[in-house]
Specification:
Helix content is 38%, strand content 29%. The chain has 197 residues and is an alpha+beta fold. The protein has a 9-stranded mixed beta sheet, sandwiched between helices. Helix 1 packs across helix 3 and helix 6 crosses helix 8. The longest helix is centred in the first third of the chain and has 13 residues.
């Protein structure tokens, strides 16, 4: 999405940066894992297909994709590559043109808290008041994570073998989210690299 192409979000535990072609080789290596493909309901892609997908997501007006970096690694040394700091990705999809306040969120993170930064951006920048997560029925860790975050099950698809969980952002939750992300700094992506390290 062009909206986040120059945005870097610097938090205490994570740094979110736009998904660029520089990230594709590492991302592609992750996605070779059959377990990860199963948990994310993804099909294996060639490296060329992955580059094409990254470019289409960057151009698409309804997708906002960030690569999640481990902030401690990212800030440790100025010469540390982004690729070596990658910890996952967070995606926000605007899936229903008839309901512009709804965003579908996808998270692929190993134990870090990048999702809050994306939610805050979805609420403050995009005006979203509802988030949905579609998760494979067998992906119990993700289902538990979203339920802990107050997402409620709203649908089950036996055809796609997935559950849909939804969070409606009340004013109370909005204020909590803003408090939880008050430390997050928004910077220009490439400018933020030299200043933040």
């Amino acid at each position: 999405m062009r909206l986040n192409e120059n945005i870097l979000l610097l938090g205490k535990k994570v740094v979110l940066v736009p998904y660029t072609s520089e990230h594709v080789p590492r991302y592609h290596e992750w996605m070779k894992s059959e377990e990860l493909q199963r948990l994310t309901a993804s099909e294996p892609l060639t490296l060329e297909q992955e580059y094409s997908m990254q470019q289409s997501w960057r151009e698409d007006a309804d997708k906002c994709t960030f690569i999640v970096m481990d902030a401690e690694k990212w800030q440790a040394q100025p010469r540390t590559t982004e690729e070596s700091c990658m910890a996952g990705d967070v995606n926000l999809f605007l899936t229903d043109p008839g309901e512009p306040s709804l965003g579908e969120i996808e998270v692929m993170i190993a134990g870090l808290k990048g999702r809050r930064c994306v939610w805050e951006g979805g609420v403050t920048k995009l005006g979203l008041t509802k988030f949905e997560a579609k998760i494979g029925q067998g992906n119990e860790p993700s289902i538990r994570m979203f339920r802990k975050l107050h997402f409620e099950q709203v649908a089950v698809s036996s055809v796609f073998q997935e559950v849909t969980l939804r969070l409606t952002v009340t004013e109370h939750e909005r204020q909590w989210l803003l408090e939880q992300t008050s430390h997050v700094e928004e910077k220009r992506y490439r400018d933020g690299l030299s200043e933040s390290r």
